[in-house]
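so my prof wants the structure for this chain in the tokens format not the other one, which i didnt know existed until like an hour ago. anyway here's the sequence
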Amino acid sequence: MADPRTDAPATDRPRVTLHPDFRRGTVDRRLFGSFVEHLGRAVYTGVYEPGHPTADQFGFRKDVAELTHELGVSMVRYPGGNFVSNYVWEDAVGPVEQRKPFLDLAWRTVEPNLVGTDEFLQWAEREGIEPMMAVNLGTRGVDAAAALVEYCNGEAGTRWADLRIANGREKPYGVKLWCLGNEMDGPWQIGHKDAHEYGKLAAEAGKAMKLVDPSISLVVCGSSSMQMPTFGEWERTVLSYTYDLVDHVSMHAYYEELEGDRASFLASGTAMDRFIDRVVASADAVGAQRRSDKKITISFDEWNVWYLQSRFPGEQNLPIQRDAPRIIEDVYSGLDAVVVGDLLVTLLNHADRVPVACLAQLVNVIAPIMTEPGGEAWRQPTFHPFATTARLARGTALDVRVDAPSYTTKQHGEAPVVSAAATVDDDGALALFLTNRSAEPVEVDLAHVGASLSVTEGWRMVADHEPAVHGPEHAAKVERECWSQVDVASDVAARGAGSTTVRLAPESWTALSGTFARA
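here's what i got, hopefully its the right format
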């Protein structure tokens, strides 16, 4: 029987082929993680603000927690980020009144030290969110990393577990996912190391951490971006020391519109796709050289739209500040939201090798949720595609094939005008995600030979052409003008057995839900 994914004739009309038997991998719920770092207002006046009208008895904002649940966040990475590389975790446990503020060198901010390991882990537990912890391998090392695992996961009767109990928490937290430092390839990182230095340290720290708790999973630092001069060689060297010990290698990537180049920005998903493929190839090459059957997977634990080059002055240019300064509070447009949706398409299409991902960050700092001190919390435009994908994408990611015309971009080369991903669960519930990167409406043919497909509802984000403005009024305007339900009756049409047509708006991201099963 011919494979229906490969026998499509060449055509200028985009065609997306899918079948319930052609599967990519299970959609891990940790794919919908986020990130809370001690940076700007992510913690203070973000997730935590005692005295706020919605604050719970522990000082955490319930309005932010409610939006976090609506967003569909499954996991949160903490405490950094660059922050972790000069963090002494022991100074941030125990009675709050006895803790001392300190200068965080990463973001040149006086950290008040009111939220630490216990406060974060108990917040995550109350909200039903899995924690992902990072250890400091910048200014510290093996002892401190193993001690933190013991503090979090150890049973009574040892030094650090007993300290946790003395601090009011008897039951171990049972943290399962741990990052071996952060962006250690970056010269900006406090305690930056070359690949050999870091690889040796990560191996020894990880070994000690697993001796404390063999059930934990470890994430070793990959390259901070595909543009790093050491990219590729860094992964090869680091994994040569850690391959048998770690479970995941990290990836970080941020995307932005530069000099009005919308075409390249809309094709950011192709750059992410290429980055993932190259890291997977690097990891598999190390495995092949070792004759290992083990597969290292990806923890894409920082990704988002961030106007890093055009809006952020750089850490070294920040003055020393205190009282939760407003740092990196990018505001987002409908265009940004379309790109975020398309990046989610890419992540779903790599579900077999990317089980973990973190939208960076959760609140205020390049975030889908914004707050005002003492005031309201609101959804940025990027909130909507993430929340919709987290809600709909269940079960198994299908191996979707896209045949579509391509266009040339300045930054990313050739990119298809349409991208697509799909998931189906055991009950036949279908989620289909489509991006139209072109400035014209597009009709897409869905080929599903041998399978019945029914679309019942959908949602669409269209790009705008207005600059984003801080505040809930702008976010509400974008939601009103760019975010809407799909009129399934007019935009989705069956064309006979095994064929359906979907109409996509210009520069848009669309999510459709329905049913899908063998005919």
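also thought this was worth mentioning. The two ends are 16 Å apart (CA to CA).
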